[in-house]
Amino acid sequence: MASISNKRLAWAITGSGHYLRESLAILNALENVDVFLSRAAAEIIQQYGFQELLNGVGHRVYQDKTASSVPVELFYQGKYHTLVIAPATSNTIAKMAYGFSDSLVTNLYAQAGKTRVPSVVFACDTAPELESEAPRDNVVKVYPRKIDLDNIAKLKAFEATTVVEDMQSLSESIQQSIQQSISQADQP
């Protein structure tokens, strides 16, 4: 198992453009991060023209290319102190809220929980009405459904899971997790 001082942050990205640019900006300000892309995330990053933002600091990037989500084994090896899922689509939120682990991102979330690694989730659909960035610098209004909002509420009740609703809360939660990891590493 990795010593706590060597633990990294795991960051999973789903196929949402909602605050994707801002999520990548926070991600690129961090060190010691492994990035996990869902199949849809790999597509949407290309569609939005954000590949350079993703590659900006040279984080290790894993893509959803195996049926069994092979990269989750890194959680069993104790490599991570925190899992961040940002941005998280309503589809991913629904799957996580009901215990599905049928993709790289949902499998990461399940295995983080099973190995007692805390998760921070930035859910896209957090209010009855939102403005979201669409490809080619368009902004659109979106109206999350009641079930989307209910699934977020359900996920908020999960142990070791922090659901955040804005970029400031995401950044603060990540910094808090990093500081906790450093504090634990300093303990004899």
Q: Can you give keywords for this protein?
A:
single chain; 188 residues; alpha/beta; Rossmann fold; 6-stranded parallel beta sheet; two-stranded antiparallel sheet; 8 helices; 8 strands
Q: Could you explain how this protein is built, in words?
A:
It contains eight helices and eight strands, in the order E-H-E-H-H-E-H-E-H-H-E-E-E-H-E-H. The chain has 188 residues and is of the alpha/beta class. The chain has a single domain, classed as 3-Layer(aba) Sandwich (Rossmann fold). Helix 1 links the parallel strand 1 and strand 2 (33-37). It is globular and about 50 Å long.
How many domains make up the 3D coordinates? 1
Sheet with the most strands: spatial strand order: 3-2-1-4-5-8
**Cα distance spanning the termini:** 17 Å
CATH topology: Rossmann fold
The chain-level mean pLDDT equals 88
Walk me through the topology:
Layout: E1 8-13, H1 20-28, E2 33-37, H2 39-48, H3 51-55, E3 60-63, H4 73-76, E4 80-88, H5 90-97, H6 104-114, E5 119-123, E6 130-134, E7 138-142, H7 146-156, E8 161-164, H8 167-186
Parallel strand pairs: 1-2, 1-4, 2-3, 4-5, 5-8
Antiparallel strand pairs: 6-7
Helix pairs in contact: 5-7
Summarize the structure.
With 188 residues, the protein is α/β, with parallel strands linked by helices. 41% of the residues lie in helices and 23% in strands. The chain has a single domain, classed as Rossmann fold (3-Layer(aba) Sandwich), CATH 3.40.50.1950.
